[in-house]
C-alpha cells in the first residue's frame, strides 16, 4: 500500500527542487515501527497499530531549509525472524532498525537485522546508513534491554543509535531521522551512483501486487527473494543469553 502525506506541500515526484531519500524500516513485531514512522511524518501518535502489509509512505519533508522527497518503506513483521527482501536491499538508501527496550527478543531480532543489512549491502555499500532506534523509553519501569547494549551494537557496526518514545518524544524522533536523511545526502555527494537503485515505480508495483485474477481471499504481500537471517547471530557479548 502507498500512502501520500503531503502536509500542504507538493508531492515528491512533482518537485524538481527536492532532494530524495528512501528509507526501509525493519524490526520485530509490536516494537512501534509504524508508530515511529507516522510520528515523524505527521507528528501524530497512534497507540496501537497492526498490519501484515508492507507500506510505502511518501512525503516532502523539510530538513535544514531544504525539501527532501522522502519514501519510507515500513516492512511488516509477523515472525520473530526478520527477512530482508533483496529488492529492498537494492531500493533502500538508508535503514531504520527498531527494537523495544521492553523486549530482549526484539533486541535480538534487531541485532540480526543489522547483521543482515550489513552483509547484504556488501562491497557495494560497505557502510550503509543505519539508525538503530530503541523505542518505548517511556516504559522504563518494565525495561529489559539496557541502553549500553544498544550503544555497543551501534559501535560494533558503525551505526547511529538513539533511545526514544514514539508516544512522548516527538522532537527526538524528528531529530534522529533528520540526521539519517542528512547522512544519505552526504553520501550521495561523496560517491558516484555506480549501483543504480530499483526504480520507485517497480518497487511500488511489487508492493501493490494486488492481482485482479482468481477468487477468494489471497495474500497480497509480494513474493520476493529473501536474505535469511537464520543463524547469523553470533555470541558477541552484547546479546543476553536467557
TrEMBL record:
Q: Which InterPro entries match?
A: P-loop_NTPase, Ras-related_GTPase, Small_GTP-bd, Small_GTPase
Enzyme class, broadest EC rank? hydrolase
- EC number in record: 3.6.5.2
Region: Disordered; residue ranges are 210-242
Keywords, ordered alphabetically: Hydrolase
Signal peptide positions are none
The reactions it catalyses are:
GTP + H2O = GDP + phosphate + H(+)
Any Pfam family the entry gives:
Ras
Name of the protein described by the UniProt record: small monomeric GTPase
Q: What organism does this protein naturally occur in?
A: Cherax quadricarinatus
